[in-house]
Amino acid sequence: MNDGELARIATALERLSPAAAPPPDFDSAEAFIWHVGPDRLEPVAQVNRVALPLLLGIDRSRDTLLANTIQFARGHAANNALLWGARGMGKSSLVKAVHAEVVAQGLSCKLVEIQREDLPSVGRLLAHLRRAPDHRFVLFCDDLSFSHDDQHYKSLKAVLDGGIEGRPANVILYATSNRRHLMPRDMIENERSTAISPSEAVEEKVSLSDRFGLWLGFHPCSQDDYLAMIDGYCRAWGLDPAPEDLRAQAIEWQATRGARSGRVAWQFFCDLAGRMGRAV
Length: 280
Description:
Layout (H helix, E strand, L loop, with lengths): L2 H14 L14 E5 L4 E4 L15 H15 L7 E5 L5 H14 L5 E4 L8 H9 L6 E5 L10 H9 L10 E7 L7 H10 L3 H4 L1 H4 L7 E5 L4 H14 L6 H15 L4 H14 L5
Parallel strand pairs: 1-4, 3-6, 3-7, 4-5, 5-6
Antiparallel strand pairs: 1-2
């Protein structure tokens, strides 16, 4: 085999297994997204989020998560957090808004988002973050849940428990889910009823949520909270519709959607702002 053939083989192998990306510059941004194939942390120039004061009806969860994040950013003890509950009530928005508030207070804290399907690579991500002890990282996994044969939850334990090496002291995990125990209730009951050892059949998956020190529940909002959200958006963007017309339109909008939530309030506001000739 001549040198030319060896060079072609080496080039083909490099394409199949690309070189690892260089260490990220964590000073380049306040937020990053973890990608695989190849592994890399991509900086986010501008995070898509709303201001913390605009998140209404979730005061207790807001205050608890903010206090926990400030503790962590200051290098003090803090808990991993699971934000669970009703759709559209601001779970992921709260994580991003709290991060912005912590940074605005002059504390160094980076937000790193990882997709659920990339959880098997979380060990490699933690290795990157462990090598940057001067920074604090909130690892964020949105819309987390597991199905019957899903093994991704085992990877998540690397963040929550850390194994022999332990979770890096400069990393904390915030996850959002519509499910309190991260798997459907009917699946839990099915495994309990069909397994040889019912008490052990689902313990491994169900107990995963127990490894979060903070459980923050989000519940459907009242009509007053829904209308207050819309009023807050109008004030923030300088819109001044007639109060009675605004109330009637907002109630009609939520009736057509069959639900009230922060997401529905925002969608109505976007429609209102568009009709009033404003960009948001």
